[in-house]
Amino acid sequence: MIVERELDTLLAFDALIEQPENISKRFEYLHGEIIEVPSNPHSSEIAMQIGWLLGNWVYPRKLGRITGEQGGYIVAGARLAPDVAFVSFETQPELARRGYNPVAPDLAAEVMSPTDDEEQLQKKLLLYAAANVLTWVVREPTRTVDVHEPGKPMRTLGIGDTLHGGDVLPGFTLPVRAIFP
To answer: Which domains can be identified in the chain, with CATH numbers?
Structure first.
């Protein structure tokens, strides 16, 4: 749903999201539009599964931090809230404590729910690509994952395939099957 309010600046957006009535809501600022991003328990469960599996590999190796859908990032000027994100300590030693993180994540996972808009997703993918973010688009109905790796053609993995961390998380592997409950 698009909030029926025009904003003159991103500073106004930042003020809007910190208002008490909006603290528990999830917003994105994409090409001049404020978008309230609803989710659902099923998509959230898939995102949590990815975050948990990713965290089990990242945290013991002290590689960085994993955030969920409430962790927003500034990506190529836009404010995005990926369902799961990874930021290496090398990229950013300390995450922001308020507002949207000023540094784009190294990896973003977007779980497509029935309420998500494909056109908005394509806009986000362009922004992630501009910021060199490894992006996984998880499509529950088809049980597939679209992998958007910077500088490489997009590829779609099926339930019998394995995700790899690429240059972002060398050595990390995740069977696609393990993502889906």
So the answer is: 39-179 (3.90.1570.10)
